[in-house]
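Why does residue order matter? Because the sequence determines the fold. Keep that principle in mind as you read this record.
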Amino acid sequence: MIDRYTTPEMTRLWSEANRYRAWLEVELAATEAWEALGEVPPGAAGRIRAKLSAPLDDAFAARVAELERQTRHDIVAFTRALSERVGEEARYLHLGLTSTDVVDTAQNLILREVLDIILEDVRALQAALKAKAVAYKHTPCIGRTHGIHAEPMTFGLKFLNFYAAAQRDEARLTRAREAVGVAMLSGSVGTYAHVPPEVERHVAERLGLTPDPITNQTVARDRHAEAMSALAILGTTLERIAIEIRHLQRTEVREAQEGFAKGQTGSSSMPHKKNPIASENISGLARVMRSNLQAALENVALWHERDISHSSVERVILPDTTALASYATRRLTGVVEELVVYPGAMQKNLDALHGLSYSQRVLHKLIEQGMTREAAYELVQRCSLASWETGTHLKALLQADPDNRLSETELEEAFDPAWYLRFVDAIYARY
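Structure:
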């Protein structure tokens, strides 16, 4: 998936080197807190930071991996690699902490940065959707229910609907960012026995996080499940839009289609093909995002105060899902921005059923003229089914039916598409 929609920053944030950088920030902030409490010699945290001023690069990550093959414990390997660089004062690192204090707090720090990227992606998608909603605010098209022509609407309303969904996605992701934006340095079972709450408060403030009010040895995984849920729902929004574009690009519909670049090919065997490949790709990625939510939900229930069954899962689903969310959102934004729209085809499709889309308006007008609902419905349905079979315009069939009570003027009014669109401005005013 290396193309213009790939995010190098996302790749960097989930790299091993950046994971160790985040661990280091937690460790250093904790050392600073111990120093403020008088438990570590003055200036120790600053001297350690100075010795580690060079970035924790791929070479450092390789050294940690080498040590982990021996220790079979990632944090122990990490602190030993730090000791090799820092020397004697490394003993002030990881003071009173358990591994998960560092790992969970650092992971939440990274998740918050990752969600910031996705939030920006969602806002860019909103802008693209809003632009289409405004541009086609009054462009008539046929609305479809069950895949069948229903009643007139406007093409812009489709995109205003999508825009509203993307706003809800932003709100969910913002809440999820808050849910995972917590620090935890509470010790082996959450009692602060070896590290006082003051250390946690200092680290949280230093990193821009919030102290988790209650933990055991882990940050409760319902927080992460909430984030994964927001991402999964974002995926459904993306697929919802992508499926609409795929349907609109069908040959029989052809009201809109993905942009087709110069030199692009649609098929290895059929030169005429233009396929909605980006939208199909997004539909597929949404399936992965949703399936990963199930794994996140399974992570919530752990044994007693902690086990590590969640850890291996998160090493896969968190980087994969967030990277896919960013990629798919950016790619869909490109599709929407470059969408080719055919208002002429929309009008042709609007007229394709010879007036059947106006059947409800006719029904109501007949009721207004004193017919029972049942009798009016039977009349309109009878003429509608005949229109389906013969291709004759519904209005002509109604005019010829002896049970019809509507005048020529009333029938003309019933088949006026403007009547169906009279509240479009009011709907837009809500946004």
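The radius of gyration is 30 Å.
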